[in-house]
Every structure is written in C-alpha cells, then in structure tokens.
C-alpha cells in the first residue's frame, strides 16, 4: 500500500476526502471506480482511525455467513431492529438507505477481498447479524484497489477549514505553517467522531463525565466543527452514550474493547453485589445504568459455561484472551470470587441464586430479562464452576451524532438546505442511529454511506470543475 506525505500534495483534485477510516477509504475507492479523480487526506501518520481499533463487527442481513450458520434474517427485520433501537428518533430515509444498500456494499467489499467470520448476536439484534472482519486488512484492500485507478492517500495532512466560494465548497485549507490549500470539485468529510475530544464531550454529553474515552487519536471532531462553521446542521447529540464492559485500567483500548460476557449469558452486579438492570439491553443502555452505580464501575459475573461460549475471533467475546491477560478474576465459589473483587460474598451468592431460580423456573426476571442479548439466546443458570468476574467500566468509543445529511450524503445546513459541494459519511454524521445504536451499524454505515458519498461527490465534482491554482486569494473559510 503506497502512501504520500504533505510535500506531495497536489494543488487540486476532483474529490478531496478528509479522513482515512472506513468511510474515507470506501469513498475513495467508490469515487475512482466511477472514473473520478480523488485523493484522501489523513491527519495522523497512519490509516485507520477508530475503524482499526474497533471490534470489527458489521451489521448486514441475508449474508452468505448467516446462511451457512442457518440464521434466517431479512432486510425488513434489519430495518425494524434499527428503527426499534433508535426509539423513533432515526431518520427513516437514512435507515432505508442503509438497508437497501447493505447487501450490495457487503458484496462489493467481499469482491475486494474482505472476509467475514462467525456471525454473532449483539446489542439491538433480534437475530445474530454481527459479522466480524479484520478492519486493518479491509482498509488496506480498499486502498490497494483504489491505487491503480489513481486514488492516492496522503498521511500527516490535517484539514483545518473548508473553503467556500460563491456558495459552493471549493477546497480545504491544510494545517501548516504555510497557507496550504487544496482546491476541490467536492469535499467528503469522513473525519470520524469526537470521542477523543473531552471539551466537545463535556459540551454535548455531560452525563459521560464518569465514562472513559477511546478512539482514534485524530478523532477530535474536526469535521463536525468544519461543517458547523459553514452552517451545517448537527443532530443526535443528546444520544451520545458509553459502551459497557471496558476493563477499567484498559480504557484506552490497548486490548481492543471490553468484553460482553453478559451477551453470552452472564450477569452484571454493582459494588453492593446486586444486579442493576436487564443485561440483554443494548450495551449503551447498560452503560447508562452502570454509570449510575457506585463509582460507575460494576462487574460481569459468569461461569464456565459462559466462558466456553468464548470466541477469540471477536474481541468482545474473547474471554479466554482476557483470562490469559489477567483481566478476569476466577474462583471455584461465588464467595471466593466476591472476596477477590472486594464485594460482599453472601450477597453475591444470593444474587446469583435468585437469578438461577428464576431462569430455571421460567419466572419473569425482576428487570424483565428474557434473552442473552437483544431478542436472542436462551438464558441458563450460572451454576458451573469455576466462576469468573470482569470488572467493567463504561467507555465512549464513538459519538453517533453529527452533521445532517440527505440520502446523497450531501451535508445539509441548519434549514435542511444542501451545502453545495460538501458531502459527509461515517461517524461524523448524525440522524441515522437516533436514540440507540445497534451493534455493527457504525462500521456498517461507514462502508455503505462512505461508498455512496464517494459516488455522489464524484458526480458532483465532475459537473463543477475547480480551478487548479494553489492559491487562497479570494478564498474565504
Ligand atoms: C474500541 C472500539 C470498538 C468499536 N467496535 C465497533 C464494532 O464492532 N462495530 C461497529 O459498528 N462500530 C464499532 N465502533 C465504532 C466504529 O469503529 C466507528 O464508528 C467507525 O469505524 C468510524 O469510521 P469512520 O471512517 O467514520 O471514522 P474513523 O475510522 O475514526 O476514521 C476517521 C479518520 O479521520 C481522521 N481525521 C480526523 N480529523 C481529520 C482532519 N481534520 N483531517 C484529516 N483527517 C482527519 C482521523 O485521524 C481518522 O483516521 C468501535 C469503536 C471503537 C473505538
């Protein structure tokens, strides 16, 4: 994979894409496949952003992998699940766009060599549809496919302002000692979210003050601010949530993400050794409940049967990997486990006994839990020693809110009017998830919408050729 530095920057390009995560790489390849001139600028020294730190799960329905596992799914069910998880706050047109383009994008990615592993159920899914993949490899494949078609990637190039002339975005100003400008026929903002910008988090999500944060180092909200600066609408900020399950001293995600033993049949207890919610709920909701407990730190409790359901291909289910890293406490008795956690052993034993009794009797759970995760997976009693515990905090991994866009991925201003020449895709957009996030739809939307943004921005740029002078005279940011 060949990349370029700042000194190689051209004076102009048809489409200038900001950000080298999945949305940006998909946009780059889609634009050049349609015969357009396109370049990608990445602020940091590496491609990847949050995409390569992620668990790599994409949500599709009706795939080869699901068929091989005998999973019956459909586009209608996918749509219903996304809308239900978003609690009526999703833009239904964006949800339709995702659903209608999902299988085509899945096949496009597979056609470029992307491979998916064993499909799992996770948050918000009534059937298993989390497709794991190696995201670093996925981005390499997209860039390698774009190269022979003229797509080039520039590293260490941070865009700092958009340039608008005569009502149209015509370029990007680059952060540098010199006033460097790259002119563009169209610009795609694919700069990811702002999970690594505590000031923006405090502004939009004060409830996350006790949460840890993780994400790509460059995920500072630059694209959001650049769009906002030109009058773009910003939507879904009230729904920023943290993800439950991160190991407290690993909140920077050195070992990937946290784990979700709760979604394989485990339970979660607080510092008082008591359960506090229905653990099958989306992990953002479990995160909210967990942040309301003492110190915001709780424990996932499970037994050998749950451990045996581990899958080392999927970070959130790699329980054995965490055991090897010393991140799980282990004991033959619940009392012994509690002692290691510094919580009350008698209460923990009573909590588990009560849970087991209800599960065995098929009695309604005190929090309404019926499934392992979402609407899938049968519950079973936690009675097979040894018992395990994973101390768990809540971490903001992604922000799921941002710029308003239409179904061409064109950025809309505060009055829902298109900003000419400006497109956006990936985590930087809002409107799609609404009040809740179904696992796999953030990577899913980066691929699906990134591809659409590249196509549409390419078509726009082809109709609006930009000047090629690398001067910023007359340009206004
Ligand atoms: C630990 C973790 C686990 C996750 N697991 C999942 C999962 O399993 N499934 C799922 O759907 N989602 C998951 N997510 C969320 C998901 O990974 C992201 O939402 C998604 O990958 C975002 O893709 P993107 O291309 O929009 O942004 P990113 O991949 O974050 O890429 C954005 C890029 O833009 C660059 N950039 C920023 N500002 C500028 C600028 N001014 N100029 C140029 N470049 C800039 C950044 O450096 C970055 O490289 C997870 C996130 C994390 C952190």
TrEMBL record:
Cofactor entry: FAD
Keyword Transmembrane helix: yes
InterPro entries per record: FAD-dep_OxRdtase_2_FAD-bd, FAD-oxidoreductase_2, FAD/NAD-bd_sf, Succ_DH/fumarate_Rdtase_cat_sf
SUPFAM superfamilies: FAD/NAD(P)-binding domain, Succinate dehydrogenase/fumarate reductase flavoprotein, catalytic domain
Keyword tags: FAD, Flavoprotein, Membrane, Oxidoreductase, Transmembrane, Transmembrane helix
KW Flavoprotein (keyword) present: yes
TM helices/strands, residue ranges: 12-32
Domain FAD-dependent oxidoreductase 2 FAD-binding: start-end pairs: 15-442
Name listed for the protein in its UniProt record: FAD-dependent oxidoreductase
Species of the source: Ammonicoccus fulvus
